[in-house]
Specification:
The protein is mainly beta and about 675 residues long. It contains seven helices and 45 strands.
């Protein structure tokens, strides 16, 4: 009985020792002299502290579970000869020093109201820290600040400007987080890595990127709530690997430009329609995202990257895109896709790109030139039982090509060049192409890409001419070229409201062209009234039309080539109305010229400066009093400084100038 009573007494005594509280008013660097019991469990500090006081807590107060710093001001400290934390020698005011509470048993922390920054790993490894309120005004949370702590929720103040790598990584108890920064910033690398129970995440409009691994290993996170506009521009490498994300809304990310390697690998994303703004879709971005049933690449997609969709559940027929040229290794590996259409632009499919697609029932290739293949593209697929539909003119080439010939190859589609689908190739098909290009007539959209390069332009017109004339290029689709010796030119001009002006458009070409097209974007108040060809193109058919407000397209074509030389090709008459403000430009782009052998030339864009006389008539400079003046052009560039007025415009080319603050016309 005595032993039992003694044990009870010792337990009570120990319990009394464990529950030790102390309140102190501190001066910088003096906390060590104020704390009387290193077994203190609850500590309230007022006054001022610096990094030395935090170092004392870190090194000595192992029993501390609660600390109240609400009445404290943190002052700066520096000592180059005595590093305190992490070999740092300088510590800013209002900042919790790095590693200040690293691995401590604290379960309750009240920060100073004036806290502006939390240092690197300041609360990392605090396994009992289940809750902490971050005061408004914090603008920086450093790397690993709360990593491997027990925080269950976190609301980051709107004053935040910087969040460090892995700030909340491995927080196994974290359920929710709000990140609403005041200035644009990325959710950093590994920000919430392996937060196994994170299921609510809200991001503000100033979160502009999701960093590498930021939400990797978050199986309970099914969606992200955006408070305000979704401004995510970049999704980093492995950002959502192993996450529970099911419906990241790519369509709402209008500024999204890149999705890096493995970004959604092994996630629960169920569909992905990639916006046109994305110019980089990385390797394995959806690798074994086993619930992904639909994938639509952006309209400008050139590449299906290696392993991009391997192990997914995609079933949609258009997963290969419409302009894709390269399908990478293992791109569709082990997918259950039953039908797939390969685009007309396709040039290459990588090793085992379609291996394991054992449910494939039908394959269509629109490519007229048989795409090259890597090794074992259809490994494990019973090709002999699967129809492969190919363009009629390419049937022989597919049946002779290794791996392709193993399918049940069938020729489909209309007669090559039969744009209007009337069963013959005639000038009516050329007219159909003109209507498509000039009037946006979509009636024959499916058959307008005659040469199968993924675009409809003057090259298709040339091919139809060649088919009609029996001189079709038999070498297959030519690569496009850009030759800087091919140039278009037009001189700038001035025009008054209500007036017209005829602009000569010149062409310098080294090769003979049988078809051309170009687009002119007109400034407000300026429109085209007529386009006429010169003797250089007198035998060429010509058409023009306003294809959208302010944008005009011109087409010229012929069965024979316009030989290479230089000079005016056609004349464009423009008219100005009262809305024309002058000092603007006509932009000429999408300049495409085609040789008779169907080789496409892209010619550099052209800008034609357009000014206005604003009713100013000829001014005789001799009528002004002589004296020093400055001379400017209409773009505001100083041409001459402090010259006599009588000599101000001598030798200048025709145009409008500002002489001594007045407009002067030189004719």
């Amino acid at each position: 009985m005595k032993k039992f009573l003694l044990s009870i007494a010792l337990m009570v005594s120990a319990t009394m020792c464990w529950a030790v509280s102390q309140e102190v008013e501190c001066t910088p660097g003096n906390l060590a002299n104020l704390v009387t019991n290193y077994n203190v469990t609850s500590l309230t500090i007022t006054g001022q502290m610096d990094a030395r006081d935090f170092k004392f807590i870190s090194d000595n107060l192992d029993a501390l579970t609660s600390i109240d710093l609400s009445g404290v001001s943190i002052v700066p400290y520096s000592n180059t000869s005595n590093p305190l934390f992490n070999n740092e020698v300088s510590y800013a005011e209002n900042c919790i020093p790095p590693m200040a509470f690293f691995g401590k048993k604290v379960s309750q922390v009240t920060l100073p109201a004036g806290t502006r920054a939390i240092g690197k790993a300041a609360f990392a490894g605090c396994k009992q820290l289940v809750s902490i309120d971050l005061p408004e005004g914090i603008d920086s949370i450093a790397s690993f600040a709360f990593s491997s702590s027990a925080v269950g929720r976190i609301t980051i103040p709107t004053t935040l400007k910087s969040l460090g790598m892995g700030a909340f990584a491995h927080c196994q108890a974290l359920l929710s987080a709000n990140v609403m920064p005041s200035t644009p910033m990325a959710l950093p690398k590994d920000a919430f890595l392996d937060c196994m129970f994170l299921n609510v995440l809200s991001l503000g409009p100033n979160v502009i990127a999701i960093g590498d691994g930021a939400l990797s290993g978050t199986p309970q996170l099914k969606t992200i709530t955006f408070t305000g506009q979704n401004n995510i521009a970049s999704i980093g490498r492995a950002a959502f690997v192993g996450s529970g994300i099911t419906n990241f809304n790519f369509a709402q990310s209008s500024g999204l430009s890149e999705i890096k390697d493995w970004a959604f690998a092994q996630s629960k994303q169920v569909s992905a329609t990639i916006p046109a703004s994305v110019n980089n879709l990385g390797k394995g971005a959806f690798y074994y995202a086993s619930e992904l049933t639909s994938f639509i690449p952006n309209q400008n997609c050139d590449t299906i990257a290696d392993m991009l969709l391997a192990g997914t559940a995609i079933t949609n027929d258009n997963a290969a895109g419409t302009k894709t040229r390269y399908i990478g290794n293992y791109a569709f590996y082990n997918t259950p896709i039953t039908e797939l259409t390969l685009p007309a632009t396709l040039e290459y499919m990588g090793t085992q790109a379609m291996a394991g697609t054992t449910e494939l029932q039908e394959l269509t290739s629109k490519a007229r030139q048989v795409p090259e293949l890597g090794e074992d593209v259809w490994l494990g697929v019973n090709q002999a039982s699967i129809p492969l539909k190919v363009p009629r003119p390419s049937y022989d080439a597919y049946t002779a090509a290794a791996q392709w010939q193993d399918f049940l190859v069938t020729a489909t589609g209309s007669i090559e060049g039969d744009v209007n689908q009337d069963g013959t190739v005639t000038s009516a098909d050329i007219t159909a192409l003109y209507n498509y290009l000039l009037n946006n007539d979509m009636t024959f959209y499916e058959t307008s890409d005659v040469n199968g390069d993924g675009a409809v332009n003057s090259a298709d017109i040339t091919l139809v001419y060649n088919i009609i004339m029996g001189s079709k290029n038999i070498s297959g689709r030519n690569k496009s070229v850009r030759n800087d010796n091919d140039k278009m030119n037009a001189d700038g001009f001035t025009i008054e409201a209500g007036s017209t002006h005829t602009m000569d458009v010149e062409l310098i070409n080294t090769a003979g062209f049988s078809a051309m097209q170009l687009d002119l974007t007109m400034p407000q108040g300026l429109s085209i009234t007529s386009v006429t060809t010169t003797s250089r193109a007198s035998e060429m058919a010509m058409g023009y039309n306003e294809i959208e407000p302010g944008k005009w397209r011109i087409l010229i074509s012929s069965a024979t080539a316009m030989q290479g030389n230089e000079g005016t090709l056609f004349n464009i008459t423009v008219q100005a109305d009262d809305y024309f403000s002058g000092n603007n430009a006509i932009n000429i782009d999408n300049i495409i010229a085609v040789e008779p052998n169907e080789l496409v030339h892209f010619i550099n864009d052209l800008t034609v400066e357009v000014g206005t006389t604003t009713g100013v008539k000829d001014i005789n400079v001799d009528s002004f009093a002589n004296g020093p003046v400055d001379v400017y052009n209409m773009n505001g560039q100083l041409l001459r400084h402090n010259v006599e007025r009588s000599e101000a415009t001598q030798g200048l080319p025709q145009g409008i100038y500002i002489v001594g603050g007045k407009k002067v016309i030189v004719r």
